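>> received
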Amino acid sequence: MTEQKTEREFIVPLRKAWLRTPNYKRTSKAVKAIKQFVARHMKVPERDVSKVKLDVYFNNDLWFRGRKHPPSKVKIKARKEEEIVYVTFAEEPQYVKFIKAKQSKIHKAVEEKPEIKSEEKPKEEVAVEQEKKTEEKEKEASVKEQKIKEAELQAKAQKHVTKVKEPKIQRMALKK
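>> returned
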């Protein structure tokens, strides 16, 4: 079967959908309304809402004003690839373009970094090094345990020693 790709722009009215819900559920209801609208207009089989995917930046933009104050209408671009429909902005805001450009620069920089190849050592040498490291860790752990035991013994010894009370020195009040 050939791959079908269709792309359409819509203005989705949201106010009627979220006015019927409690204040604290308005934005989530707006998201559901967008998915239902797209499923209906893009002819998703059985109007399955799980096959409608919102863009991350678009979703963040919907939730930007909080859960009580979603936008009253939204202009979207829906792209259908086989059975899945992807929803994004109709006109991408400036901040989204900036973020995507920054991410692409980072990805390019990561891809261009030359990989530093370490000299491959025989498996025997690697195993010997690992054994040495584990032995060192065990030694450090045993030294720490000994220090802890010594500290506990000193604390017990200090508890058993009776303290000698020093005599209180009374000061005489100076007379005028």
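>> The first strand starts at residue 5 and ends at 13.
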